[in-house]
Amino acid sequence: MITRADKEQEIKLITEKFGKAKGAFIVDFKGIKVEQVTNLRKKLNAAESEMKVVRNTLAKRAFKDHPAIEKAFANSMKGTNAIVFSYGEVNATAKTLAEFAKDVEVLQIKSGVMDGEALDDAKIKFLATLPGKDQLRAMFLGTLLGAGSALARCLNAYAEKLGGGATGTEEAPQA
Prior knowledge:
About 55% of the residues lie in helices and about 15% in strands. By secondary structure, it is α+β, with helices and mostly antiparallel strands. A five-stranded antiparallel β-sheet has the order 2-3-1-4-5.
């Protein structure tokens, strides 16, 4: 039997996790085997996330300190739930959950929240398709370098056309 002090400690822990997390998701894990849950936890750990199985009543009490989360998760807290806290990139967590849900169909992503905004199923699926921060940076740098390289090639071709083939890299004949 869980004591009142244990319940208060659990509520405090959940509240702290919501305070640190950039986003969170409610998942229904009913019917998933222990090995699959362990595998999911490892994948989530790699995405700077954590899954915590909580009692619905304790979670609802922890929501009181976070009104946006309470509003987003109010209708989702029925059945066997776990909360996935995302401490890193929220889209990486959404991608991990979506990929795992494809492999293990009994996992249901019920709801999510990011930056105080509720995420429905469509928003979570869209979030899972977005590239990560590092990928976006690489794409941006590729775009910047591509434009510079194209300009350099264009100027070089124009210089060759004007100079009759001399690009400035060849040595001039000495007299």
